[in-house]
Design goal:
Blueprint: E1 7-11, E2 18-23, E3 27-31, H1 34-40, E4 44-54, E5 60-63, E6 69-74, E7 80-85, E8 92-95, E9 106-111, E10 127-129, H2 131-145
Parallel strand pairs: 3-9, 9-10
Antiparallel strand pairs: 1-2, 2-4, 3-4, 4-8, 5-6, 6-7, 7-8
Length: 146
């Protein structure tokens, strides 16, 4: 599989949720914020996507975790599936472990690096951003769309 404007497929552990999405970039990113760590049971590994289509949206649970973001999961088995903007427009981060074939992605970015616990670290060089940098970029992008 090559990513970056390629259609990806995936689903939850129990099979109740199946989806397709278009990879916005051929990359996998990691979030170290405390909410993502609690929600995913570790770091949240995601692929930035557009055009996410879920076969049966009635199987989705949605938790509004902040004023701008929500977390989407399977109502049956609890699998973490997506982080997306609550406005319904913009960034959707598809959970990397939910993809059927996650080959061809580069580990490109770590965000909320200032919230990362000191007991682990990923090897290699990549973009690393603090929470403050991520929030500033988010609000700058929002202003640009207004």
């Amino acid at each position: 599989m090559t990513a970056g404007h390629q259609t990806l497929s995936g689903g939850c552990l129990c099979g109740s949720v199946r989806f397709t999405a278009v990879a916005a970039k051929a990359e996998m990113d990691v979030c170290h914020c405390s909410m993502c760590r609690r929600w995913s049971g570790g770091v949240l590994m995601t692929v930035p996507c557009t055009d996410v289509v879920v076969a049966d949206e009635a199987q989705l649970g949605i938790y509004p975790s902040s004023e701008w973001g929500e977390r989407v999961f399977c109502r049956n088995c609890g699998t973490s599936l997506f982080w997306r903007q609550r406005s319904g427009e913009g960034h959707v981060a598809v959970a990397f472990p939910s993809l059927d074939d996650p080959q061809g992605l580069a580990f490109a970015e770590e965000i909320f690096i200032d919230e990362k616990p000191g007991l682990y670290a990923f090897a290699g060089e990549r973009r690393r951003k603090t929470g403050e940098q991520v929030v500033a970029e988010f609000f700058a992008a929002q202003e640009g769309r207004s």
